[in-house]
Specification:
The complex is a heterodimer of chains A (220) and B (227).
Chain A lengths: L10 H4 L3 H43 L13 E4 L9 E8 L2 E12 L4 E9 L4 E8 L51 H21 L15
Chain B lengths: L2 H14 L2 H5 L3 H7 L3 H24 L9 H23 L1 H14 L3 H11 L4 H31 L1 E2 L3 H5 L8 E2 L8 H4 L1 H29 L8
Antiparallel strand pairs in B: 1-2
Helix pairs in contact in B: 1-8, 4-5, 4-6, 4-7, 4-8, 5-6, 5-7, 7-8
The chains are: A alpha+beta (220), B mainly alpha (227).
């Protein structure tokens, strides 16, 4: 072996303050490296996050519905009933007229919070909903994820007007949505989250009136 | 340094001194991420990359690092390198990051990386250190893929599901349904399944090592030992 043993003492290294100074120097140089790395990558990371957001918006908003950039037209709404945090609502507009919107809803599931993005048209009909992140049991309750199962598409076309309050539940609770064998809490949370999202839309965009007649005034 | 020496390093990493099966290190990521063969492969690839990079840095600085503070220095270096890799992948390889990203941060806590820095890279020149990190990483990877494969087949009846999102569309052929219309043994995907599989693999490896030793002894002329 040609490697020199690590304990070789040089006069400098024998000095009592050497280890402390070394550790300090390493920490300082790592900090500088991280600062430079952060600055170099910041733009790339922001761009990537924006692309992710656009991609997830495209999943829940019908592409023909809008020709603006919803990421740049964000309305922030405080609503204590839906969330303690302010909610960013991405507005979809065609030729300046509001045609739909998308926003995130976060509700507790079985294993942790479930984050959904919900797309609605202007009348409050679900265009699409997707689970963005969850910590539900793999193989049992992760069927809420579109990559595992198409269960979540059961919400497409639903609204407060075509589905009664009683029906916004899983079948086990007397509603219209399937639960999974062995997992009721997760689908119950998702159904509840989407229902809450629709109520939020009704409070802020429909002016708390009774459910509107469907579709006609949607594209005005 | 001879080829035999490098061969020895590879044999150590892949089998004799394998990270999860012999050193019993890095069990946390090995147990946690192997819900499918693809996830095991992803964690393995990320670990090989970070381990090689960390061994390179530690080996380069080996004559500067004082033994008294080596552990905090290694930890700082590893955490810094991992964070830089995380940032760079997020910015410039975003589609890969979406699949591997969750694993990268986990590597900071992977004691196998620190273990290789301490045991090997701190004492050896750069080239052997790189080869050692590569061999150890590959040894870690095959165990994770095997564990993930066993758990995935028993738990969901598939093998390498979603491989194309990790490796690109050219690898879609890897995605196989082993047991069609299979209901799945849920426990294999849950944490207990990981413990069952690692226990099984450890037992198999011990048995094989025992058999190999026995054969070696017979070949060298000694009588088999009865026990």
């Amino acid at each position: 072996m040609s490697a020199e043993p690590v304990t070789t003492k040089t006069p400098l290294r024998a000095h009592l303050s050497y280890p402390g100074l070394l550790l300090g120097a390493i920490c300082l140089s790592m900090t500088i490296a991280l600062l430079i790395g952060f600055q170099l990558t910041r733009k790339g990371i922001d761009d990537a996050a924006l692309q992710d957001k656009l991609a997830s918006l495209a999943q829940v908003l019908t592409a023909t519905l809008y020709n603006n950039n919803p990421v740049q037209e964000v309305q922030t709404i405080n609503d204590a009933q839906l969330s303690e945090q302010p909610i960013d609502v991405y507005l979809a507009k065609r030729d300046g007229a509001l045609t739909g919107m998308a926003f995130q809803v976060k509700k507790p599931g079985y294993g942790g919070p479930i984050t959904l993005i919900i797309g609605l048209d202007a009348a409050g009909t679900v265009l699409g909903a997707r689970v963005i992140s969850h910590k539900e049991t793999p193989g049992l309750a992760d069927r809420i994820d579109i990559t595992k199962d198409d269960w979540i598409t059961a919400f497409d076309g639903r609204s407060l007007s075509n589905t009664s309050t009683q029906a916004w539940r899983v079948k086990k609770d007397g509603g219209e949505f399937d639960q999974f064998t062995g997992a009721t809490i997760t689908p119950r949370a998702v159904v509840g989250a989407i229902y809450q999202g629709l109520l939020f839309h009704q409070r802020h965009f429909l002016g708390d009136t009774t459910p509107l007649p469907p579709a006609e005034n949607a594209n005005e | 340094m001879s080829n035999a020496y490098y061969g020895r390093i590879f044999r150590d990493g892949l089998w004799d001194n394998n990270v999860p099966l012999s050193q019993m290190l890095a069990l946390c990521p090995a147990l946690a991420t192997t819900t499918s063969a693809t996830n095991g492969l992803g964690m393995g690839i990320a670990t090989v990359f970070v381990m090689t990079l960390c061994s390179l840095v530690v080996s380069t600085l080996r004559n500067v690092i004082s033994p008294a503070v080596r552990i905090p220095v290694f930890v700082t270096l590893i955490a810094g390198v991992v964070t830089l890799v995380d940032l760079a992948m997020n910015a410039w390889m975003h589609s890969l990051y979406q699949v591997l990203g969750i694993f990268i941060a986990l590597i900071v806590s992977n004691c196998a990386v620190l273990g290789r820095a301490e045991v090997f890279a701190a004492k050896q020149p750069i080239l052997p250190s790189l080869i050692d990190a590569l061999a150890m990483g590959l040894g870690f990877t095959w165990v994770l893929v095997l564990m993930g494969g066993i758990r995935e087949i028993l738990g969901s009846g598939t093998l390498f599901a979603h491989a194309s999102s990790l490796l690109g569309p050219h690898f879609a052929w890897m995605e196989t349904v082993v047991l069609p219309n299979y209901q799945g043994v849920l426990i294999m995907i849950l944490p207990p399944g990981a413990f069952l599989v690692i226990g099984l693999l450890l037992a198999v490896k011990r048995k094989m090592d025992q058999y190999l030793r026995e054969r070696e002894r017979i070949r060298s002329g000694a009588l088999p030992v009865l026990n």
